[in-house]
Design brief:
about 220 residues, alpha/beta, BirA Bifunctional Protein, domain 2, 8-stranded mixed β-sheet, 3-stranded mixed β-sheet, 4 helices, about 25% helix
């Protein structure tokens, strides 16, 4: 069974983590570390992926923005959101292409939510995880030699109207929301615990604490 080092961080600006992810990815490619899962929250920013740039999509005025090289369009980050970045070499059975990896991450979130009594599902409108027909989790990855950067977000209890105010990738405003806005009260620590408890089943990797420095596992 492959290990997955888990690194939980205090709230950190998106740009800081983006730079570190590039270093972690190179270390994983060189086998200088184990697979790594980074759990973090960011101050508010909307990252703009290649699809959004090609379609001329921008968030409304009043949102900080940053350019991202992951797949997808506009993604909101901010308080009340759990961000999970898998710096992972995807070469286990069932991980043969990007769609299979996305499918595996979706299944992981759906399984973790089920442990909390919440029924998540997929939706043909867009990849990610949905609850009651509303999108609460987004997934966007960037790969180099089959090691991923970027990852997934789960909106737990985000400020009212902020994530709901974004439109992109063919979705209308208010399509994306938070669990709290749907009446699902979830503590961040309980969601993290559910993700770690289901990690081995869903991803085939056994979680363990990362080294204290956050450096090579």
């Amino acid at each position: 069974m492959r290990h997955l080092d888990v690194l939980g961080l205090d709230p950190t600006p998106w740009g800081t983590i983006d730079a570190r992810m590039r270093e972690w990815q190179q270390e994983r490619i060189a086998d200088e570390r184990e697979d790594l899962l980074v759990l973090v929250e960011h101050p508010e920013v909307v990252t703009i992926g290649p699809k959004a740039r090609s379609e001329g999509q921008r968030p409304p005025d009043g949102y900080a923005v940053a350019e991202a090289d992951r797949g997808g369009g506009l993604t909101w980050h901010g308080p009340g959101q759990l961000v999970a970045y898998p710096i992972v070499r995807w070469d286990l059975p069932g991980e043969q292409d990007v769609r299979a990896v996305i499918h595996r991450l979706e299944a992981w979130v759906i399984l973790a939510l089920s442990r909390l009594g919440i029924e998540g599902h997929r939706d043909e409108r867009m990849q990610g995880v949905w609850v009651d027909g509303r999108k609460i989790a987004s997934i966007g990855l960037s790969f180099l030699r089959w090691v991923s950067r970027h990852g997934l977000t789960v909106n737990i209890d985000t400020p009212a109207g902020r994530v709901e105010g974004l439109a992109g990738c063919g979705l209308s405003p208010d399509t994306t929301t938070s669990l709290a806005a749907l009446g699902r009260q979830v503590r961040r620590e309980d969601l993290v615990a559910a993700l770690l408890d289901t990690c081995e089943e869903a991803l085939g990797r056994r979680p363990r604490p990362a080294p204290a420095t956050g450096d090579k596992g």
